[in-house]
Design goal:
Number of domains: 5
Radius of gyration: 56 Å
Helix content: 40-55%
Strand content: 15-25%
Oligomer: single chain
Structural class: alpha+beta
Strand order of the largest sheet: 9-8-12-11-10
Number of helices: 22
């Protein structure tokens, strides 16, 4: 006969509570699965499977214990019962694994839900089969179908909820629904079961005390396991939150570092262990001319010249990896535009606490301009050394020419009236005077003093340096001069103007390597307000040099007057020529203008203030000076015996009484012994005491004694130049006579003034 069973309400409530708690725990643990990776992920997957599968089984087993039949004692097959537990855990774990393997989809959810639902149904009926009682068990197919549908629906819903990120209140609501659904599946399955008792059945109606105790034990164990799982998930979530917070802080710190790194004004870079660029600063990109995506991931050697790249790869990089530091090394870098840069790079390997490689930090320092300046300085030092050497040689040569000119002049006066002999002496004297003119230019090249502007006849100056110009620019360049008559003089330092014209001529020669025409001319111009030259209104002399050479483009023309800028090769130019001309024009109150086009030649216009010539007071004509003046007692001072003898001979020839001294101290001794000396003619450059120092001593001790200083050129300091009369070497008898005349009769000179000035 069919036996109708009853359920213990307390145990039924306990089973439903297990289902809800297990559902909540499984949903909570599913979140840890998504937040984990590696073996931690697999551990949380197993824990969720145990929580969900074991919870479903515990709910099923407690609900089975809640069911009792009158007069019948029920036992359970331990093997089948344990197998049903393992089956529940297994199918739940597989379903969770399928859903967490990749992005969840509807098809994957349906398959996993079907698999888990059927597995739970099998677990349920395997548990029913494990019952041992004095009755036969059969099933109602309709209720079996209902239980299967409920199981599949509940499993699919559970998997869908587990794949979502939900808040705690959502998980609690879902657990409530899931618990009721799981319980509903179980009790639908129990509704399908029909029990037919055997004879001799017991007459007792309620669940035994043993069943109740077993149910309580399973309930307590299940809740303890689920509670510990929740506690573990809570701690893991807390640790993960702290780790995430630290990771966020680290990420923000790295972002700030990356932002600072990229925004630093220094050209910095970072390499990986293979030497590939990981990070570069914006300044680095600006220096090299690249975009960031064109640089990151490429090795540094891609941006170096072949020689520098080979040295970096074969020597410097192995040294850096071995020593963790690389001292500053020089390389040649190539920008995106193809320009070459001289750079200095240093680097350091960054390692973590365990010594593992992190990256290489380094940077580039552009020293291109510094190296150019150093090269220009070396060139300038060479020029200075040449100037000093030239000055020394020219000074000695000037002394020799003074002897030659003086003696030739004396010889010419003592020659018989023989035209041929006189012509030979005149030729020798002219050659010596040309040598003296060349020596003056060499001394002008070597001098170091401020500008001394004076009224200069530019046409006469250019004509006088024609030989020097032709020798400097060579026979391939033809020089034509165009100077109109009645050209006003320019207010400028004559010798600096010579150097400026010479520099401009040499530049023109370099612009015409195959030869050509150089035109030199000048015009007088009256500039008004707002003139193109940007000068003050007034009269100016415009000196123009025009060549028909290669010309300059706009970029070169814009930098043409910069100090040390040159387009010539190494050793072929200092970059100081045009800057010197520019400085001369500015200091003289004028302006340098350059007009040029590639292939059309260059025109240089040098604007200089125009002046009128100074007017000196009228004195005796040079022809009469040789015999003017009474004989004087003269002390001649010079450290060069030849010059000393020549000067003394010229003075004696003029009728003066001469005594000789070889140095400044010697002259002072003679002056102390002989009070009758009324004139001292002294050389300027002498060892121990210069001529100006001797003159100061004489002026202090005997101010009535006149002093005439004989100098090559620019040997007096600026503060002393106007204090003493001076005679320039080399000189002849006539020049010496003029100097002595000016000592007796000082001339009044009207200073020059600008044309048109008041």
């Amino acid at each position: 006969m069919t036996i109708a069973g009853t359920h213990d309400g307390t145990l039924v409530a306990m089973s439903i509570a297990i289902a809800m708690f297990a559902s909540y725990t499984a949903l909570d643990l599913a979140g840890r699965i998504r937040a984990s990776t590696g073996w931690i992920r697999r551990l949380w997957l197993s824990t969720a499977a145990v929580a969900m599968g074991g919870g479903i089984w515990a709910m099923h087993f407690v609900a089975m214990l809640a069911h009792s039949m009158p007069g019948m004692e029920v036992g359970y097959d331990v093997g089948l019962t344990m197998l049903s537990l393992l089956l529940a855990i297994l199918v739940t774990g597989v379903a969770f694994a399928v859903m967490n393997r990749s992005e969840a989809s509807g098809r994957r959810l349906a398959a996993a839900g079907l698999f888990m639902g059927l597995g739970v149904v099998v677990m349920h009926y395997m548990g029913m089969a494990a019952m041992r009682m004095t009755a036969d068990l059969s099933y109602d197919r309709l209720w079996i179908g209902i239980s299967v549908l409920i199981a599949i629906g509940a499993a699919t819903t559970a998997l869908w909820l587990a794949s979502r990120n939900s808040r705690q209140i959502e998980r609690a609501a879902a657990a409530l629904v899931m618990g009721v659904a799981i319980a509903g599946m179980h009790f639908a399955g129990m509704r399908a079961a029909m029990f037919t008792g055997h004879s001799g059945a017991m007459e007792d109606g309620m669940a035994s005390v043993g069943q109740t105790a077993l149910a309580l034990a399973v309930f307590a164990a299940t809740f303890l396991i689920l509670f510990l799982s929740l506690v573990a998930a809570m701690f893991d979530r807390r640790f993960a939150s702290l780790a995430q917070r630290e990771a966020d802080a680290l990420r923000k710190s790295e972002e700030r570092f990356r932002s600072l790194y990229r925004g630093t004004p220094l050209p910095l870079h970072a390499f990986d262990q293979e030497g590939r660029i990981e990070q570069v600063s914006n300044t680095w990109l600006e220096l090299m001319g690249y975009a960031r995506e064109e640089v990151v991931g490429r090795p540094l050697i891609n941006f170096l010249t072949e020689e520098s790249a080979r040295r970096f790869r074969q020597q410097d990089w192995p040294e850096l990896i071995a020593k963790d530091v690389l001292d500053p090394r020089e390389y040649r870098a190539v920008t995106k535009a193809g320009a070459f840069l001289d750079v200095v790079s240093a680097a350091r390997v960054e390692r973590d606490d365990e010594g593992a490689f992190i990256h290489v930090l380094g940077g580039l320092t552009d020293v291109t301009e510094r190296k150019r300046a150093e090269e220009a300085l070396r060139q300038a030092q060479k020029i200075e050394a040449i100037g000093q050497l030239t000055g020394g040689v020219a000074h000695d040569f000037n002394n020799l020419l003074a002897v030659v000119v003086g003696n030739l002049d004396l010889l010419r006066r003592r020659l018989p009236d023989d035209p041929r002999t006189r012509r030979l002496v005149e030729s020798a004297l002219e050659g010596a005077q040309r040598g003296a003119a060349l020596t003056q230019r060499l001394l002008a090249f070597a001098r170091r003093q401020d500008l001394r502007p004076e009224a200069v006849d530019v046409a006469q100056l250019v004509g006088g340096m024609a030989d020097l110009l032709q020798r400097s620019i060579g026979p391939m360049v033809r020089v034509e001069t165009r100077f109109p008559p009645e050209l006003p003089p320019a207010r400028v330092d004559a010798h600096q103007l010579e150097m400026a014209i010479l520099n401009l001529a040499v530049n023109a020669r370099d612009a015409m390597p195959e030869g050509g025409l150089l035109e030199i001319g000048a015009t007088a111009e009256q500039l008004g307000e707002g003139n193109a030259a940007g000068l003050l209104p007034g009269p100016y002399l415009r000196v123009v040099l025009t060549d028909h050479g290669a010309g300059m483009d706009e970029a070169t023309l814009a930098r043409a007057t910069e100090p040390f800028f040159t387009t010539k090769g190494v050793g072929k130019g200092t970059g100081l020529g045009l800057s010197m001309v520019h400085g001369l024009a500015a200091q003289s109150g004028g302006r340098l203008l350059i007009r040029s086009q590639p292939g059309a030649g260059t025109t240089v216009s040098l604007y200089l203030p125009a002046t009128i010539t100074p007017r000196a007071s009228v004195g005796p004509t040079p022809a009469l000076l040789a015999d003017v003046g009474e004989p004087r007692r003269v002390l001649v001072v010079d450290d060069d015996p030849l010059v000393l003898a020549n000067t003394a001979d010229l003075l004696e020839d003029m009728g003066h009484s001469v005594r000789r001294a070889s140095s400044g101290p010697d002259a002072l001794d003679q002056l102390a012994r002989d009070a009758e000396i009324d004139l001292v003619v002294t050389d300027q450059l002498m060892p121990g005491m210069t001529g100006s120092q001797l003159a100061r001593r004489i002026r202090t001790a005997a101010p009535e004694i006149q002093v005439l200083i004989v100098s090559g050129f620019a040997e007096l300091e600026e503060s002393e130049a106007g204090n003493y009369p001076m005679l320039r070497k080399p000189f002849d008898r006539e020049a010496l006579a003029q100097a002595l005349f000016r000592l007796r009769h000082p001339a009044t000179v009207v200073p020059f003034r600008r044309v048109g000035s008041a």
